[in-house]
Amino acid sequence: MDSMADIKQTFFQECDDLLGELESGLLDMEGGDGDSETVAAIFRAVHSIKGGAGAFGLDNLVAFAHIFETTLDEVRADRLEATPDVLSVLLRSSDVLADLVRAAQNDEELGEEVTTGLVEELSAFVGEKAGAPDEAAAAGGEDISFAPLGTAIDLDDVFGDLDSVEESQRFIIKFRPMPELYANANETVLLMRNLAAMGEVNVACDESQIPTLDVLDPEGAYLSWTITVQTSNSEAELLEIFEFVEDDCTLEIKSEELPDDTIEPELADDETIPAEEEASHTDVEGGKDGVTSGDNTADKDNVVSLAEKKEKPTATAQASKEKDTSDATIRVNLGRIDRLVNLVGELVINQAMLTQGVFDAGLERGDSVEAGLEELKQLTREIQDSVMAIRAQPVKALFQRMSRIVREAARATEKSVHLVMEGEMTEVDKTVVERLADPLTHMIRNAVDHGLETSETRIANGKPAEGTVSLTAAHRSGRVVIEVCDDGAGINRERVRSIAIEKGLISEEDKLSDSDIDNLLFMPGFSTVSKVSNLSGRGVGMDVVKRAIQAVGGKISISSQPGKGSTFSISLPLTLAILDGMVVDVAEQTLVVPLTAIVETLKPMPSDIHDLGAGAKVISIRGEFIPIIDAGISMGYRTEPTDPLTGVVLSVETEDGARAAVIVDSIQDQRQVVIKSLEENYGHVDSVAAATILGDGRIALILDVDSIIDRGGSAVSFHENSLAATG
Amino acid sequence: MPLSVLAVDDSRTMREMLRLALTEAGFEVSLADDGEHGLEVLDGMAPNVIITDINMPIMDGFGFIEGVRRSAEHRVTPILVLTTESAPELKMRAKNAGATGWIVKPFDKDKLVDAIKRVAA
Amino acid sequence: MSREDIKSEDGRIILTSVLDLRAAAPLTDELLALRGNDLVIDASKVERIGAPCFQVLLSAVKTWAVAGHTIAIFDESSAFSEAAAHLGVCLSQPETIENETCH
Asked: ipTM of this predicted complex?
């Protein structure tokens, strides 16, 4: 960290964390789980954002954070009850605060209309207390007992021109410290030194109050001073020296040799502190002794919080320990982690090559080298897992963004929606998490907009007026499954079917199963809404969602029950860097087929193969006819199709359920391979998803199953065939 | 010998800003995340000046100041409160807890440095 | 006052280097224990001294004077002299007020 620009980066990173804490805290409160620490944490989050924003001169952010904070302070102080209405405004405020942060980060200015409405709503909660931050600061500055400095400086600014700067003035200062001055680590010697730096000083010390040693309080305050200062500094600057001790002393500053037309006499009266001494002294006593002085709420707070603190020292110690172990984090540049991931990938490859090399050299089974290699393999695997874990992030932040989407969608559609989240701590690769944001947003919007019925309809159907959308994440057999579920009307299959016919996606004669119809939603160009609502019409269909999910190696599926709701389920790989693959031979080349795409492998019987003419063949697998694709031809390794009977058939299925039988010559192995992207170096290559390096050092291409199916026949007609066959 | 300063603030941003400003001014800077952490860090060091935020999790600035003042070793170490709160009753509370001085955020670097020098023995 | 003036039967203390607020009470106790004799105080080691410890020293001077004894401070470090000058305190006993350390 060496410059303000870096720190500004830190600030925005911190804002992300704080905004997350803010939202999850507010959601906890909404769910009835919020205690006073939750409210305090929420307040701190907004407060910290405001503080940082102030340091970088982000005035819009400061202004909004201030009114937001003021409202939260009311909640914190139990002066404002966190009713659902209040929480709704607070949640929306947190959304707007996030927008303002984002805008500031991008050096954009958001229009006033973004905040105006909310500022009014927030102000309504706090009554007259709200005000711009500078007003609040001014109010603080006007507090005579603590900071007369503000007023003094202003006067100096206004009248400064009247006195020439060089003109030297003589001030007489009477200064009598109280014991509190010393107890709070202020020191007269330092004050005097600072005064001496301002000009010519003459100090007269009054030692008359000093008692004899036997009755002396060593930490009492017995000395007082009269100081004459000849200085060109202003009175305000003199006062500044005493800024920290004003409440702990009596201070009188008088100016000699005054021009007649100044307002100095008035000033002198104002700044003669003894008049205030009684009052401030009482406050001090009240606070220290824990005696509440009736009208002084600050003292009350003080007493309460002190009492609480004393009651639970072990609890805080506990909390801090937990914090030490579980929350201790370090920020690492992503580039470094990616480099580590790459290196570990190389290590995995190298380890495999080493193993192969050792056995190729004709090593005896049971040799100690074999045991060592086995251990190395184990360690390599563990390192790999640990490195992948570094890139893994809980989906919590992503889910929290969705709660905002639900709120917005609910408002736009005037539906009442409750979002339930589960498994937020489930971890997924960072890149996957990032790329899920858009598809998930769309799915959530769809669930609210299309999935849920209006409250009236729900009530009419005997359902609770408030719809529920649930968002869950879980680990399931080596993959992460994220589900968006609504308790709405379910998919209207009749309508989906008729729309699909209308759009020419299927023909009227096609017989489709329920699941086929549901899957029509994922077809390009399909949209179930006949009227464009506030939310739809954004030009994004479920086909785009599906492609986005496939792009991160995921699958999406849908299930729906009429009247009960729909569930969209996304299944994702834990990492993008490693793939479970089947290593196969095709025309003397080695290829890797992603295991996730393979349904089964089989040796076909002659009776299974059916010739459709024009070189097109299908295979019958348990009564279904599936088109045959020769991997060798798809990849351009050969021009003449191989006899399906001599090869092995891999029955594959794409994410959208399209199936094909891919013919390969033989299967070598099934193993995890490290994915090496080709796109960085070669651009996109049809039919090839990526490459990997095998144990023997050879490079193998990873087959892009979707792509070869697309290329293996006209995708649409194929799809129809497939649907017809399964139906 | 350079003056040593312990700065306690829960905001990473603020800690980094303080580190930058104070290091540039030639101070030796130590940092802590909250009051309790501050007391831990303080154990075993003797800063010339302590700077602390008020609003912090686990242990706030008031608790921290009281903790410092209770310690035999550090009870006379000057403590400057650095916070966005300008409300007089909060200042008074900090004073009663034992704060030496008060600086309102966003801080002016020169003023902060000046204030540190002013209270540093 | 100089070293040559010190008589062997005098009580004698050496001030510690840091005389902040914390040092005031121990200093008071130390001084109280030496009542009844003339006292010499070595201020050569003082690196820092605040007003409270000056109060203790001033109180001692007063206490000794009341009892008819003398206190003499010698070998003042520059930090000690500087602080005394800033505070405008005079540590000489009333009898020696004409002494040039105070004016």
From this structure: 0.88
